[in-house]
Specification:
binds hexanoyl-coenzyme A; Rossmann fold; alpha/beta; 12% strand
């Protein structure tokens, strides 16, 4: 399954061309698999985007490839050497985005780190690293973008997970971090609603073609995975992109403080692979 979109996302999909014309997105982790396709969807619908990452080569290559999907290649700005654990680096990225595009309307706090590790072998520093990237990084992203979100009555989308709904083994670090992200998003929805800012989470399940699935596929076959999912298939990055478009669109203008689970119904079974 290709982890990229093309013009058929608009021509064959439910969305209307140009709905995000004049809007600007700021995406941490935008060169990664899921957030990259979320960003592609926004670009195809007329948005401009800054994709923010740690690695210069990876971020610039992703931006170049993404700009090939749209008519104006100048609509994608790569900003690299940004570690979301460092607030000052995010402030610099926000300043560069505003300098280039003049504003920020949509924020995706997507940068994340994870690995499979039994609690017994998880060092305090390993736990701290994941919580710092996922949770502190999400806080830093929201905080650095706040002036722009207030000015433009913007919308923020955190990338969560379902690990913390029922306890997934070897994922204590990321489960703790994602539970914190849900709590952060809910608090911001309530606190910043008065400023016209909406805050929501997307919780992807097993998404095909991602690093997470690749790490699992050594031990569990795709058929075994699909058999545990009510909709009987893995999710796609396009599934996450469609939910992203909905949450940023005017169709969701009264939707804030929610977690949208994109997992084919799997978490209801309270199981894991
Ligand atoms: C146990 C590990 C580990 C592993 C790193 N550590 N990898 N412990 N198992 N596989 C420990 C290190 O030993 C160290 O602890 C601490 O974590 C910090 O490691 P560093 O490499 O110094 O940290 P850093 O450079 O900040 O890297 C952060 C990272 C890294 C999260 C550890 O993997 C990263 O940057 N990843 C970004 C990309 C990524 O993770 N993508 C996955 C996205 S989601 P000590 O005590 O030795 O100092 C995903 C879902 C997976 O993949 C789902 C699986 C089901």
């Amino acid at each position: 399954m290709p982890n990229t979109l093309d013009n058929s996302f608009i021509t064959n999909g439910p969305w209307k061309t140009g709905i995000f014309e004049g809007k600007v997105a700021f995406v941490t982790g935008g060169a990664g698999t899921i957030c990259r396709v979320q960003t592609e969807a926004l670009l195809l619908l007329g948005c401009k985007a800054a994709i923010v990452g740690r690695n210069k080569e990876k971020t610039e290559l992703a931006a170049k490839e993404m700009s090939g999907l749209i008519q104006d290649p100048d609509s994608v700005l790569p900003i690299s050497e940004v570690d979301v654990r460092e607030f000052a680096q995010l402030e610099r990225a926000v300043a560069l985005t505003v300098e280039k595009f003049g504003r920020i309307d949509f924020v995706i706090a997507g940068a994340a780190g994870n690995f499979i590790a039994p609690f017994e072998r998880l060092s305090p520093n390993a736990f701290k690293s994941v919580v710092s990237i996922d949770l502190l990084g999400s806080f830093n992203t929201a905080k650095a973008c706040l002036p722009q979100l207030k000015q433009n009555k913007g919308s923020i989308l955190f990338v969560s997970a379902t690990f913390h709904y029922y306890g997934v083994p070897f994922q204590s670090h990321v489960g703790a971090a994602k539970a914190g992200i849900d709590a952060l998003s809910n608090a911001l929805a309530v606190e910043l609603g008065v400023s016209g800012i909406r805050s929501n989470c997307i919780a992807p399940g097993a998404i095909d073609g991602t690093e997470g699935i690749a790490r699992l596929s050594g031990t569990v076959s795709k058929d075994q995975m699909c058999s545990k999912i009510p909709l009987q298939r893995l999710g796609s990055t396009k599934d996450v992109a469609n939910t992203t478009v909905f949450l940023f669109s005017d169709a969701a203008m009264y939707v804030t403080g929610t977690v949208h689970i994109v997992d084919g119904g799997m978490w209801h079974l309270g199981t894991h692979f």
